[in-house]
């Protein structure tokens, strides 16, 4: 599937990484997406949250977590006493992957395959090397597998402190899975409980 590695400038700050990522051709996902959606937030953030990939709204706006899942994440971060402005938000995959519905109008999110995550992960590694957060939070299975390895199971190990690639890491569910859950209140409470562990860990 390819790799972003040849496109990642060495020793670059976040601004230079973002500029370079705009021209990434490391896999084919750039072909149908509007633009690269790079991470956003302060370079000195103590907390990095990693999602799966930009959604429809993010793809059009060029910013991570500004759609429905982002709204829910905002609310949960605030309730867990975590300041969104201080968080660096990014995704395992930097382009929106979708299929068109039968009428060819609506863009329907499609999960990235393993090879697409592997191709894109050099960007995430470069972001983490630059930000050097105290803690990385993986939102959902795609982010968790990208950071903690392909065998990692969020359902079995969510809300627990892990160690990977020189980082403290906690995995939880993806905010869009909370939006889709049959019992949304219960799913939200579980998500919030994990974010309270995050808050605790940051001290
Ligand atoms: N879902 C994600 O995983 N990331 C975003 O940026 C938006 C929605």
Automatic annotation (TrEMBL):
Domain of life: Bacteria
Keyword DNA repair in annotation: yes
Uracil-DNA glycosylase-like domain segment(s): 38-196
Record GO biological process: DNA repair
UniProt GO MF annotations: 4 iron, 4 sulfur cluster binding; deaminated base DNA N-glycosylase activity; metal ion binding
CDD domains: UDG-F4_TTUDGA_SPO1dp_like (cd10030)
InterPro entries referenced in this protein's UniProt entry, alphabetically: UDG_Type-4/5 (IPR051536), Ura-DNA_glyco_family4 (IPR005273), Uracil-DNA_glycosylase-like (IPR005122), Uracil-DNA_glycosylase-like_sf (IPR036895)
UniProt KW keywords: 4Fe-4S, DNA damage, DNA repair, Hydrolase, Iron, Iron-sulfur, Metal-binding
Family: Belongs to the uracil-DNA glycosylase (UDG) superfamily. Type 4 (UDGa) family.
Protein name in the entry: Type-4 uracil-DNA glycosylase
Species name: Saccharothrix syringae (Nocardiopsis syringae)
């Amino acid at each position: 599937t390819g790799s972003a590695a040849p496109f990642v400038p060495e020793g670059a700050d976040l601004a230079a990484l973002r500029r370079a990522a705009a021209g990434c051709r490391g896999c084919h996902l750039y072909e149908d997406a509007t633009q690269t959606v790079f991470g956003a937030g302060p370079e000195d953030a103590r907390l990095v949250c990693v999602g799966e990939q930009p959604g429809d709204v993010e793809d059009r706006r060029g910013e991570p977590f500004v759609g429905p899942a982002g709204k829910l994440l905002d609310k949960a971060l605030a309730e867990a006493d975590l300041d969104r402005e201080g968080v660096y938000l990014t995704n395992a995959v930097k382009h929106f992957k979708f299929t068109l519905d039968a009428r060819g109008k609506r863009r329907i999110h499609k999960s990235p395959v393993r090879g697409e995550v592997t191709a894109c992960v050099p960007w995430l590694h470069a972001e983490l090397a630059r930000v050097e957060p105290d803690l990385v939070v993986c939102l959902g299975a795609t982010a968790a597998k990208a950071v903690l390895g392909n065998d990692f199971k969020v359902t079995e190990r969510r809300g627990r402190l892990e160690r990977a690639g020189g980082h403290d890491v906690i995995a939880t569910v993806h905010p869009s899975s909370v939006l889709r859950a049959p019992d949304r209140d219960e799913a939200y409470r579980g998500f919030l409980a994990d974010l309270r562990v995050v808050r605790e860990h940051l001290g």
